[in-house]
């Protein structure tokens, strides 16, 4: 943890060290960096110059910083194991004195696989528990922007409390019902929660969660819904087993972009080859390209493709071609506009 009173440069270096081995890919990295350098500029002098130099060095080395260090106050210590009711997360439409808007990584499901979105929330008090609770509630309640994504958890499920013991997070649930929504796979529903907690933990002082405990009405359960193993500390299943093979990360669903923008793709596919297609009015294809991701399966590869289009409404699609029969597989699409 960065010591209280550290300079912006020290905070930035600490963040780089903490994030070098694990990065949760975020579409809002640049605004976060600008926010930190703006804070440094207000403090003035060589501290600002050092912070900017550290950012430039990180970018040149290919290291991307996605964590919000919240340099206006020290991170909340992640040491309490007690599960307590947490009222710090409020609906994203509610804004009051001291409320803080944030974007949090949240996992949803589609066709038996997990997809992630960054979703806005407003926290009445910005704490580790508040961030984790807000993300888990959005995930379990299915508050996705993409209408193709959904939750595997039954309607009415609640988050009773969040506990943090070192890097282990305990989620106490209520009203879990008799089974997953629409008879979905119970094990994947559990992974939806585990992946969400792991992702949002990178935006807390935990930095990297080492597991999740699930309680129901304050008590541990060995098997949720009689079929999903929830005994002990749960960990993320291999990405290849649970995550979607292809994602469109940017433009996000419903986004408005300038005429020159970047399509950001990710995928776990053979040889890292995916296809990018953009459709305009009437479904007409206006852009198409074969894209090589940074790495092939079983690792998660990424690619950024610069595109320029005239104003209008579009749908961006990404998919891969089956090496067996040349069929189109795992299409992920987002509607967006160029303004």
TrEMBL record:
Residue span of region Disordered: 67-96
Any matching Pfam family: Germane
Superkingdom of the source species: Bacteria
Keyword list, A-Z: Membrane, Transmembrane, Transmembrane helix
UniProt cross-references to InterPro entries, sorted A to Z: GerMN, Gmad2_Ig-like_dom
TM spans (from-to): 44-66
Domain GerMN: 132-225
Compositionally biased tracts (Low complexity): 78-95
Keyword Membrane: yes
Protein name listed in UniProt: GerMN domain-containing protein
Organism of origin: Dactylosporangium darangshiense
